[in-house]
Amino acid sequence: MPLLQPLLLSSALFGIGVYGVLSRRNAVLALMGVELMLNAVMLNLVAFDVWLRDSLLTGQVFTLFVIALAAAEIGLGLAIVLRLFRAYGTVDVDALADDRRADPVHVT
Amino acid sequence: MTPELVVFWLLSVLTVASAVMVVSTPHVVHAALWLVVTLGAVAGCFLVLTAEFVAWVQVLIYVGAVVVLLLFALMLTRSPASTTGATSRNRPVAAFAGFSTFGVLAVVLTSGFRGIVLDLDSQPDQLGGAAPPERIGDTRSVGEAIFTHWVLAFEVLSVILLAALIGAIVVSGRVRDRDRQEAAAGGGS
C-alpha cells in the first residue's frame, strides 16, 4: 500500500474538520469538527509508524496518548459549553459573539 | 491491486463521505450519528494499517465514550430559543479555509512522500535491542512499549486526565450563592 493513501485521507479529513469548526453555529457541532481534525492527526501518526517500523512503536503509543487527551479535551469543552448555555441560554457561537452583554446573566 | 488496498479505498470513501455529512447535516443528532460512522471507518483504517490495539481503543473511547458525551451535551443544551439552522453565515469563508488547508497538506505530503510503499508484513527493526514482538501493533507489543519506555509519559497523562476531570466538575458545577448574588447585583445595577 502506498504511504500517500492514508496521508491524503488524513489531509481530506483535516480539511473537512477545519470547515466544520468554522462553519457550525452550535458549539457542540464545532467540537465535532475538532474531533475530525484529531482523527486526521491520529491517522497520520499510525501511517508513519507503519512506515518507520520503530521498535518502540512511537507512533501508535502517541496515538493512544492523543486519544486520551482528546477525551480530556472533549470533557472539558462540553463542561464549558454547558456553563455557557446556563449563563446565556444559547450555544450559538455567532449570537454569543454578537451580543455577549445583551442578555442579563441568569445563572441557575 | 492488493486486497488491503481495496479495503482501504472503500474505508477512505466511507470516511470522507460520512465526515462531510457530519459537518453539513442540519440535524444536530444526525451529525453525532454520522460521527460514529466516521470514527468507525477510521478504526477500520487503523486495522488495515496493522494498528490493532489502537483500532479497538478508538472504538472504545471515541465511539463509546466521546459520542455519548456529545449526545448528552446536545440534549442538555437544547432550548426552544436555539436556532434550527446549524450552519453559520460565514460558510463560504469556512469552505475556502477547509479546501485550502486540504490543498496545502495534500501538495506538501505528495511532494514529500510520493513513491513510498508501506510493507504491512514486516517486523520492526532490532536496533533498540528489544525482544521482537510476535505481531506488530497488537496488545502485547503496544503494552510492553507503554509500560517500559513510555511509562513516565503515561503517568503524566493520568495526572492530566485527573486535572481535566476536576476542571470539568468545577466549570460545570452549581454556582455558589455568593456568585449568584453578585451576578444578580451586577445585572440589576
What does this structure look like?
- The complex is a heterodimer of chains A (108) and B (189).
- Chain A has helices at residues 4-23, 27-52, 58-88, 93-98.
- With 108 residues, chain A is mainly α.
- Among the domains of chain B are: 1-78, Up-down Bundle (Four Helix Bundle (Hemerythrin (Met), subunit A)), CATH 1.20.120.1200; 150-189.
- Classes of the chains: A mainly alpha (108), B mainly alpha (189).
- The interface between A and B is large, with 79 and 106 residues.
Layout of SSEs?
The complex is a heterodimer of chains A (108) and B (189).
Chain A: H1 4-23, H2 27-52, H3 58-88, H4 93-98
Chain B: H1 3-24, H2 28-48, H3 52-76, H4 91-113, H5 139-148, H6 151-172, H7 177-188
Helix pairs in contact in B: 1-2, 2-3
Radius of gyration of chain A: 18 Å
- The poorly predicted ranges of chain B are none
Number of strands of chain A: 0
The main sheet of chain B comes to: none
Derived structural class of chain B: mainly alpha
Give keywords.
heterodimer, A: 108 residues, mainly alpha, Helix Hairpins, 4 helices, 77% helix, 0% strand, B: 189 residues, Four Helix Bundle (Hemerythrin (Met), subunit A), 7 helices
Question: In summary, what is this structure?
Answer:
Chain A is mainly alpha-helical and about 110 residues long. Helix content of chain A is about 75%, strand content about 0%.
